[in-house]
Amino acid sequence: MRTSIKSRIILILGLFYFMTGVVFAGEPTDIVFLTWKTSQPKVWANLIEEFQRENPGIRVKLQVAPHSSTQYHAIVTQRLKNKDASVDVFFMDVIWPPEFANAGWLLDLTPRFKEQQRAKFLPGPIAANTYRGKIYGVPCYLAAGLFYYRSDLLRKYGFEPPRTWDEMLSQGYEILKGENDPALSIYSAQFKQYEGLVCDMMEFIWSNGGTVIDPKANRSTLAEPPAVDAVSFVRDRIIGKASPRGALNYEEPESLELFIQGKAVFHRNWPYAWSIANNPKRSRIAGKTGVGTLPAFPGHAPASALGGWQFGINRWSRHYDEAWRFVQFMTSHQSQRTLALKAGLAPTRRSVYQDLEVRKKMPHLKAFLPAFEKARPRPLSPVYQMISQELQRFFSRAIAGRKSNIPALAGVASKKIQKLLELGAMVQR
Ligand code: GLC
Question: Which residue of 227, 275, 340, 358 sits 20 to 30 Å from the alpha carbon of 181, by its own alpha carbon?
């Protein structure tokens, strides 16, 4: 009698475990991936589908924020500040890891993303994801400011790609005169008040031998002549002259649109623009573009800002393992190869640059590898976002106001930035 009750209980329990086990095995775990609106949504959707096919136990829910890094930052940080566990994994701009790590929002990936694995990536993005000796993000793709031009027009007028900003203007005016097309502008870039403006303006300043911050001395150098002169050049010679005044409202997509509609001779953008500019379904100038390094001011070297995106895992997520599986998949050689070939994104893994198909179809990526390695980081600081807001305000006021007092504005912004740098040194933990 006793044994039969016991065996019945065992049987019932066994059945229960079996059934719940079946139910659990059949019900995938949902993870939420928060990201921003890219220019190639299909490519990303296909990769995510592939991940789900390979991992039937995990389902990825995509949440998409606006394109602007600044607006997306506001959305991500609001969720993280609230310890919102409903986001598991998210895309991070290359400038965010110190801020997020310092705030305690990121899962420390050091035990999972081992030294040996990290060595397979380019050093710049790995450094950007490292904070106080620990690694918090896995680089997905890298970006650096590049200079696009209409190779057909340059050829027609007998020009080589310009080496200096002045040369760009003189070539541009000659082409405009010859083409006599009122819709054509010389230069299209990102001048709206957001993160992209900081990148573009830093490139002007660096290529004039200036800096915004001297990292060694933790000192703001924004009010010094090379910076002030470069900003004045943009106000006086670019806005409303080489570029339409409307460029004050351009992020990457709008500025690229002008270029691919055939309405600008020169264009500054990240590597992804090359594939779109050469896609006849999207561009009127497919096959008529060239890409190279940005011009500089006489006597100075050109400079590109380091950009790019990484995956971070929310410290409050309840699905670390699933999120990590997703991150590994999305940053694998194979996925980075797909992102390079289908979305024109520059890989962060060295091996993808050696891939035969990538080399054949995207020779410019290989050619730019040395430039990518030399791309200059924006300040790595836990208060970077505050510094950037200050810079955005300053640059925007300086270049939008026809008679702005740039030295005075730079002086005020520089003092504020100096205080933020001191705060940054203080809050580091
Ligand atoms: C690109 C870059 C990113 C940068 C942003 C600015 O997305 O990859 O690093 O902050 O552009 O618009």
Answer: 275
> What are the phi and psi torsion angles at 265 (to 5°)?
-80, -40
User: Cα 225–212–373 angle (5° rounding)?
Assistant: 120
Cα–Cα distance for residue pair 17/101, rounded to 1 Å: 40
User: What local confidence, expressed as pLDDT, does residue 429 receive?
Assistant: 61
Distance CA 324, CA 220 (A): 38
Contact 265, 156 (CB under 8 A): no
- Give the model's confidence band at 21: pLDDT under 50 very low, under 70 low, under 90 confident, else very high: very low
Instruction: Show the ligand 1 pocket: residues with CB < 6 angstroms.
Output: 69, 93-94, 143, 195-196, 199, 252, 270, 307-309
28 C-alpha vs ligand 1 centroid, how far in Å? Answer: 34
Q: Residue 313 gets which letter from DSSP?
A: E
Q: Ligand 1 center to residue 139 CA distance, Å?
A: 13
pLDDT of residue 249: 98
Residue 15 has pLDDT above 60, yes or no: no
Q: Say how far apart CA 18 and CA 266 lie, in whole Å.
A: 65
Tell me the average pLDDT across 83-112.
Answer: 97
Q: What proportion of the chain, given as a percentage, has pLDDT over 70?
A: 94
**DSSP sequence for 122-157:** -HHHHHHTEETTEE--EEEEEEE-EEEEEHHHHHHT
Question: 395 and 387 in contact (C-beta within 8 Å)?
Answer: no
Pairing state between β 264-269 and 146-150: antiparallel
Q: List b or e across 71-95, with b for residues whose CB sees 16 or more CB atoms inside 10 angstroms.
A: ebbebbbebbeeeeeebbbbbbbbb
| Ligand 1 closest atom vs CA 194 | 12
Instruction: Specify the ligand 1 atom closest to the Cα of 199.
Output: 6
Output the six-digit token pair for 315. 């410290």
**Quick one: CA dihedral 154, 160, 162, 166, positive or negative?**
negative
* d(C-alpha 417, C-alpha 213), whole Å: 9
Mean pLDDT of 165-169: 98
**Domains plus CATH for the chain?**
10-143+307-376 (3.40.190.10), 144-305+379-427 (3.40.190.10)
Q: How many angstroms separate the Cα of 131 from the Cα of each of 66, 125, 411, 417?
A: 27, 12, 31, 21
Instruction: Determine the residue type at 33.
Output: F
pLDDT tens digits for 83-97? 999 999 999 999 999
Amino acid occupying residue 70: T
